[in-house]
Structure formats: structure tokens, C-alpha cells
Write a structure and sequence with these properties.
Elements (H helix, E strand, L loop, with lengths): L5 E10 L4 E9 L4 E5 L6 E2 L15 E5 L7 H7 L3 E9 L4 E8 L2
Antiparallel strand pairs: 1-2, 2-3, 3-4, 5-7, 6-7
Amino acid sequence: MVESTTTVRHDVTVDFGCIELTGALVHDNENRLLELENAEGPAEPISISLQVYGLTPEPGNVFIKDWSEHCGLTARLAQAGLVAPVQTLTVGPYLSTAYEVQVTL
């Protein structure tokens, strides 16, 4: 029997700051992805890949950017009990902040 690496929590509302979306929060641990699937359209990505900087999150974790439309998102997800921040990273030419978080669905 193959154990699933995907965890789903239904009826989650994610506050993006300027908009709130409700759907199923899906964590694919194998691919280090976290996204919100909703009925209104395509899945909304929550996590970001930082492989271009040679970074891969630990098992059970994902990276979340803290710039542009995701500014403050990690703090709101942590306050909702959906993630737990592990470390703060500075990446890219603009020294942007990203967080490695443990997904706690």
C-alpha cells in the first residue's frame, strides 16, 4: 500500500489581504506545494519554489513569499493555525523575504 503524500483541509478561508478566498487547502508534501482549490476558478498557489536559489524546504514544509500579492500571507496563515513559520529567508536581487513554514493542516 502506497501512503499518500497529499493532505487536504476543506472549507478553509484564506485571507490574502485584499481578498478572501474559500476552498480546499491542498498540501502536496512530495512536490512541496500548497494551494487553495476553489470552485470559482483555477487553484490559487500559496507556496513558491526557490529551487533557482538552490533551496528546497524540509519534508512537511513549503516556502511562501512575502512580497507582492502575498505580503503578510504567512502571518495570516499562521494566525489561522494552517502553518507554523520555521525560518525567514532573503532571496533574489531585491532581497525579498520568504518564509519556510511547516504545514499544519
